[in-house]
Amino acid sequence: MKILSADQTHAADQATIKTDRISSLDLMERAATALADWLMNRLSPSEAGEAHVLCGPGNNGGDGLVLARLLHLAGYAVRVWLLPADKRSADCQANLDRLPANIPQAEVAEDALPTLPDGTLVVDALFGTGLSRPLEGVAAALVRHLHKAKARVLAVDIPSGLFTDAPQPADSVIVRAYHTVSFELPKLAFLLPHNAEYVGQWHLVPIGLDAKFLAKAKVEHYFVDAAFVAGKLPRRAMFSHKGMYGHALLLAGSNGKMGACVLATRACLRSGVGLLTVRTPGIGYDVLQTTAPEAMALVDPNQDHLTELPALKSYDAVGMGPGMGQEDATRVVLEQLLREAGEQQLALVLDADALNLLGTHRELLDLLPPDTVLTPHPKEFERLTEPARDDYHRLELLRNFCQKYRCYCVLKGAYTCLGTPDGPLYFNSTGSPGMASGGSGDALTGVLTALRAQSKHLSPLDACLLSIYAHGRAGTLAAEALGEASSLAHDLIEKLGLAFQELTAPEEW
Ligand SMILES: NC(=O)C1=CN([C@@H]2O[C@H](COP(=O)(O)OP(=O)(O)OC[C@H]3O[C@@H](n4cnc5c(N)ncnc54)[C@H](O)[C@@H]3O)[C@@H](O)[C@H]2O)[C@@H](O)CC1
Ligand SMILES: Nc1ncnc2c1ncn2[C@@H]1O[C@H](COP(=O)(O)OP(=O)(O)O)[C@@H](O)[C@H]1O
Ligand SMILES: [K+]
């Protein structure tokens, strides 16, 4: 799914109006009808109680006015509050003129703010994508008033006061919604950690935006949902053999952190790799042979940490980092790996301590072979770059980093963001707070290494997208089975199979 900018959203509206030969007023009716259906499917009139609809002067306010009318006609109790305005947009004014006379309406003032008993349903239709500066005056007073009330807030399109796709002053006054219902496509602002407290749970309702316009629109951000990755994973041929699915090498583990190595190993095995060899310190041999008999163990001469790089010629992809430690001898192995992988055009996946070593020895970054995949969480990413001023600055750092080093960088989090050498950023839709516990990232390294080893079947971009999506989906399935607090990385790994099944291409005729 594409993520449009505020300007493109406006252009999509215009294209739809033209293609469907409707007026902008019709499109507003369509959008607000979808919104009303969403709300009515969730709350009956008695569950909703009296809905207070706060309406601004633009088309977002227009949506609110249509919603108020539709709710009223369906038997809901409604009250409309208008922001004072010299001028309203034409469609907003038209819908104000159409508002049934028996819906109570009043203008808000700093000394005339709505009384909102606990639990009141409040619809925020003050400002949408047309917001051009932070809220001030009466609008800011109304939103601050809302902060103090214990209301159930539903934001229309986007919480008022929040910019769609740009940073804003830290002291901006922004509606804190419980639900945000947006039209057709998600907004970049919804995917950034800092905005979670404003956006709440977000939902999309279809409004029939012009499909041709959307197909042509050039965007910098994508939302990777089920439709985006569906069928990208090729089916296995009947006469397949293990040589067709790549031979992966994992370099992982150290004294006390063999668990990370085992998790990466098991995840790699569960992700369709043909063969897997694991290079681990001597201490890991028995552990590995017992917990992952399908993998071959290749032990380092050192007992506690990695000191030597094995010959690389048999491998299609190498994953390095989980639980590996940052000994100097291990740093030398990393440097040698970067040099040799570059010469042999081997696919690389670097995580955890491999990233920390890159962070402390940044000169090594210049050795990254093209299409290397790095998987930092925000702290590891900061070690590779610099502290980000805000979420948007972090995305800018990500984009610049990937373009400079021609690499893929998986910035992990609730909406994991994949940076790519050509610029676009891909936000993953799957995952669960149940994954916020040690070991989930190690599993991702295993998945990515397995899919990069299958480069005969998958491009680097598709390997990354499928890995991130399937890893998150498996985390959700594990959390559904065991609860968010109890599901472990180990459980996620056991669900990878189901996640991959959902992504496999359908049988062809
Ligand atoms: N074609 C359409 O008419 C559709 C419009 N839609 C709705 O339209 C919204 C966008 O509408 P608009 O472009 O009218 O924008 P808004 O409704 O967000 O408001 C823009 C108006 O507010 C003013 N403004 C901006 N920032 C302000 C601030 N901080 N303080 C005071 N005034 C401020 C602007 O000068 C402008 O008059 C979307 O978010 C969506 O809700 C949807 O109904 C989909 C279809
Ligand atoms: N709240 C969340 N929602 C979705 N995914 C999450 C959430 N928290 C963590 N994850 C995922 O779990 C993984 C955690 O990785 P990482 O921080 O490296 O942990 P570890 O080092 O313990 O393996 C990442 O893939 C991340 O995207
Ligand atoms: K709004």
From TrEMBL:
In its UniProt record, which GO terms are filed under biological process? Answer: metabolite repair; nicotinamide nucleotide metabolic process
TM spans (from-to): none
Q: Which UniProt keywords apply?
A: ATP-binding, Isomerase, Lyase, Metal-binding, Multifunctional enzyme, NAD, NADP, Nucleotide-binding, Potassium
Q: Where does (6S)-NADPHX bind?
A: 59-63, 128-134, 157, 260, 323, 377, 442
Q: Which residues bind AMP?
A: K412, G413, A414, Y415, T416, G441
What reaction is this protein's catalytic activity?
(6R)-NADHX = (6S)-NADHX; (6R)-NADPHX = (6S)-NADPHX; (6S)-NADPHX + ADP = AMP + phosphate + NADPH + H(+); (6S)-NADHX + ADP = AMP + phosphate + NADH + H(+)
Stored InterPro entries: CARKD (IPR000631), Nnr (IPR030677), Ribokinase-like (IPR029056), YjeF_N_dom (IPR004443), YjeF_N_dom_sf (IPR036652)
Q: What is its EC number?
A: 4.2.1.136, 5.1.99.6
Q: In the record's cofactor note, how is the cofactor described as bound?
A: Binds 1 potassium ion per subunit.
Q: Where does K(+) bind?
A: N60, D124, S160
Known PROSITE patterns for this protein?
A: YJEF_C_3, YJEF_N
Q: Where is the YjeF N-terminal domain?
A: 9-215
Q: Where is the YjeF C-terminal domain?
A: 225-503
Q: Which domain of life is it from?
A: Bacteria
> Which cofactors does it use?
Mg(2+); K(+)
Gene3D superfamilies, per this entry?
3.40.1190.20, YjeF N-terminal domain
Molecular function terms from GO = ADP-dependent NAD(P)H-hydrate dehydratase activity; ATP binding; metal ion binding; NAD(P)HX epimerase activity
Any Pfam family hit: Carb_kinase
Functional note: Bifunctional enzyme that catalyzes the epimerization of the S- and R-forms of NAD(P)HX and the dehydration of the S-form of NAD(P)HX at the expense of ADP, which is converted to AMP. This allows the repair of both epimers of NAD(P)HX, a damaged form of NAD(P)H that is a result of enzymatic or heat-dependent hydration.
- Say which family it is in: Belongs to the NnrD/CARKD family.
Task: Describe its assembly.
Answer: Homotetramer.
What is the protein's given name?
Bifunctional NAD(P)H-hydrate repair enzyme
Instruction: Give the organism the record lists.
Output: Hymenobacter aerilatus
What gene makes this protein? nnrE
